[in-house]
Amino acid sequence: MVLKFLRRFTTGTVALYCVGHTISKHVGELLICSGPSMHPTCQDGELILAERLSVKFDNIQVGDIVGCINPQKPKELLCKRIVGKEGDPITSHLLPSGRVPIGHVFLQGDNTPVSTDSRHFGPVPEGLVQIRLSLRIWPLERAGWVNDRWFWDKSNKNKE
């Protein structure tokens, strides 16, 4: 009886872990915001649902807030807004051509005076972009959409 319970418990625990791991690696995850670089859009302690499907389906656009691997500290995730994609004109001393290179994005924090972003480390390879922030869950008084389109929506309201 005890062995049967342990087997069921272990099987259930492993299955639950596998489902959770698969969802977090391929669909989305919850993030807790920290740092001032995205104020006032994202503030310390906010809980935000981030999805991976926009990245997987190559549907990240200018204006989206994304999480990317920090090119200077690879174990750290940065949350910044995409202000330019490949070919877009950007004025920066790190872009001699004045355009975002192919396969890259130019990221910037909403709180520009304190944000360390592409203005400091240059354009980021699209491969470092991991997630797109979608829905603020906590605190409840600020709950709502962070990005205003679904992952399958290819329209870009910012470019129209």
For the structure shown, list the relevant keywords.
160 residues; alpha+beta; Umud Fragment, subunit A; 3 helices; 8 strands
- Given helix and strand content, the structural type is alpha+beta
Mean pLDDT: 82
Largest sheet: 8 strands, antiparallel
Here the CATH topology equals Umud Fragment, subunit A
Secondary-structure element order, N to C: HEEHEEEHEEE
CATH superfamily heading: Umud Fragment, subunit A
| CATH C-level name | Mainly Beta
Number of DSSP strands? 8
Protein name: Peptidase S26 domain-containing protein
GO molecular function: serine-type endopeptidase activity
GO cellular component, one term: mitochondrial inner membrane peptidase complex
Family: Belongs to the peptidase S26 family. IMP1 subfamily.
Structural write-up:
By secondary structure, the protein is an alpha+beta fold. The chain has one domain: Umud Fragment, subunit A, CATH 2.10.109.10. 21% of the residues lie in helices and 27% in strands. It has 3 helices and 8 strands, in the order H-E-E-H-E-E-E-H-E-E-E. It has helices spanning 2-26, 53-56, 118-121; strands at residues 28-32, 47-51, 65-69, 77-85, 104-108, 124-125, 129-138, 144-145. Strands 1, 2, 3, 4, 5, 6, 7 and 8 form an 8-stranded antiparallel sheet that branches. The model has no long low-confidence stretch (mean pLDDT 82). This is Peptidase S26 domain-containing protein. Pfam families: Peptidase_S26 (PF10502).
Q: Secondary-structure blueprint of this entry?
A:
Elements: H1 2-26, E1 28-32, E2 47-51, H2 53-56, E3 65-69, E4 77-85, E5 104-108, H3 118-121, E6 124-125, E7 129-138, E8 144-145
Antiparallel strand pairs: 1-2, 2-7, 3-4, 3-7, 4-5, 5-6, 7-8
